[in-house]
Amino acid sequence: MNKIKEFAKKEPILLISGLLSIISCFFTRPDKAYLYYINYRTIIILFCLMAVTCGLKKSGSFDLASRHIINSTSNIRKIAQLLTIFSFILSMFVTNDVSLITLVPLTLVVFSGLSEDILILTLVEETIAANLGSMLTPFGNPQNLYLSSYFNIGFMDFLKLMAPYTILSLLILMLQTMLIPADTSDFLDDIAETKIDKKSLLIYCLLFLVSILSIIRILNYWILFIIVFIFILIYDRKIFKDVNYSLLITFVFFFVLIGNLGRIAPIRSFLEKMILGRESITAVLASQIMSNVPAAILLSGFTDKGESLVIGSNLGGLGSLIASMASVITFQFYIKKKNSKSLKFLLIFTIFNILDLLILLALYYILK
Question: CB of 150 within 8 A of CB of 142?
Fold first, then answer.
């Protein structure tokens, strides 16, 4: 029982999606149609990107870049702004969760001698930056990869769609970081730089470029899988242990759930009517209670308005703590810190997230 509780606490979305998919199987008997539920292209490309990203992180390149930012100045506000910008840009290429896994621990160490308010605000801004920066590209986060594939949205079309929101987001973030004092602090001592494994960096950069070729549909995704699998198997098979398989399994569970719900006429009709013409706002609201990745997968089966769903699921990453599971990563790191103020963190996090969400929703209705 304790193991089940521990698993439920660690992987709530995986557990819920699994239970829902199993329940749906009682209403739609398993048959050959189940094989066509799964979007294999999304699963394979996501696996390859996660594996390649793990390799890039292991090469030390992310740590070196972030430590170089910190060592470049002792101005507190400037460091916070640089970390926020780095989180924003990094998430466009290696996903929002990897960006936070890299930067948050380093921020906790560097800002440990400063006031809790400064630390919390910096972490909040880094987290928002990761969620908003990732929305620009089809590979910035899992839901973008899935939706761009499912609705066949081209790479340039995707960039054009999300560019206005991305530009405004960066302006918002820079204004918000102005709340951090510009003092120079003696606590910000130089941190020893991490050494880069140049060979690993080169290999995984090349594999990342190969992955991009598959995302923009120049290279078949099965060929991508073979290339990435063989290279990592030969070069560093331990990378396979670092891949987030729970996310991949969650995708499969939701594919089964959507496929089964789509074959139950009354439910399909109800869901189609519910989101008709309200795709973006429905995605935003659904993300607040189930996170934006599951919301995007679930709603995709009941609308053909892919671009609206892309906008809604990305903006939906703002708001509650669970709206984007990447945000939970920051919170988990923070509450493990000695003398952490979790309630204050949640309050500041929620205020800034809701404020940013309202501003970006206003832009959505202006552009609509």
Answer: no
Question: Which has the closest alpha carbon to 322: 353, 354, 290?
Answer: 290
pTM (predicted TM-score): 0.83
- Does residue 334 carry a pLDDT above 70? yes
Give CA angle at 158 (203, 131), nearest 5°: 70
What are the backbone angles phi and psi of residue 30, rounded to the nearest 5°? -55, 135
184 pairs with which residues across the strands?
75
- What are φ and ψ of residue 37, in 5° steps? -65, -40
Beta bridge partners of 75: 184
Return the percentage of the chain with pLDDT > 70, whole number: 94
Dist CA 269 CA 128 (whole Å): 36
Distance CA 322, CA 238 (A): 30
- How far is residue 74's CA from residue 260's CA, in Å, rounded to a whole number? 56
Percent helix, strand and coil across the chain, each to the nearest 5: 75, 0, 25
